[in-house]
Amino acid sequence: MRILVVEDEVKAADYLRKGLGESGYMVEVAHTGIDGQFLAQESDFDLIILDVMLPGIDGWQLLQIIRRKSQVPVLFLTARDAVEDRVKGLELGADDYLVKPFSYAELLARVRTLLRRGAPREVEHFKVADLQLDVLRRRVVRGAERIVLTNKEFALLQFLMERSGEALSRTQIASQVWQMNFDSDTNVVDVAIRRLRVKVDDPFSIKLIHTVRGVGYTLAVPE
């Protein structure tokens, strides 16, 4: 199982990486809130261990960002021991809250408990404006019209809708949909987006798939 540790204290992060690694987990570490956000959005983790006081964006903000897209278990590990801090963390969506200094045995027990709860059920239905995607039924509808997509077109649209409103690079899209490293000489993403637009956008007055100059693409309701 994969664990992301977001901790700005290098010694503490190394301690967690070593201990959890020896306990059989794959561990990645981020030392800033921004790096933690990037890793949390780019990779799938089974658990995130999160400090509150982080450079860039703090742990409260990062948890809110994570919860917009994911229900991955989050354990706050922080020196902030006030009752109001614990309450705030849990109300924002944390699954557990452990105060520093801590016993590694207790941390490991809490980690195992959170992981035993199992992965949360994935989102099965996405909706942006009048565009709806049903993951289980493999069905796409816009307005009252059914849209028939190939498997890759469906995967591409699902990724765009999962990250609705985000500017997604061609590298991100290629990695997620085609499991390939993006080659700047390859226009597979642009071709696929063009084909998807023909089905999802062209017959409708409101366009949802937009080009982000210098970055890639986004699916969003126009402002």
TrEMBL record:
Modified residues (4-aspartylphosphate): 51
Presence of the UniProt keyword 4Fe-4S in the record: no
Origin species: Actimicrobium antarcticum
Entry keyword annotation includes DNA repair: no
Gene3D superfamilies per UniProt: 3.40.50.2300, 6.10.250.690, Winged helix-like DNA-binding domain superfamily/Winged helix DNA-binding domain
CDD domains, A to Z: REC_OmpR_CusR-like (cd19935), trans_reg_C (cd00383)
Protein's name in the database: Heavy metal response regulator transcription factor
Keywords: DNA-binding, Phosphoprotein, Transcription, Transcription regulation, Two-component regulatory system
Domain Response regulatory: 2-115
Pfam family, one: Trans_reg_C
Domain OmpR/PhoB-type: 123-221
Location of the DNA-binding region in this protein: 123-221
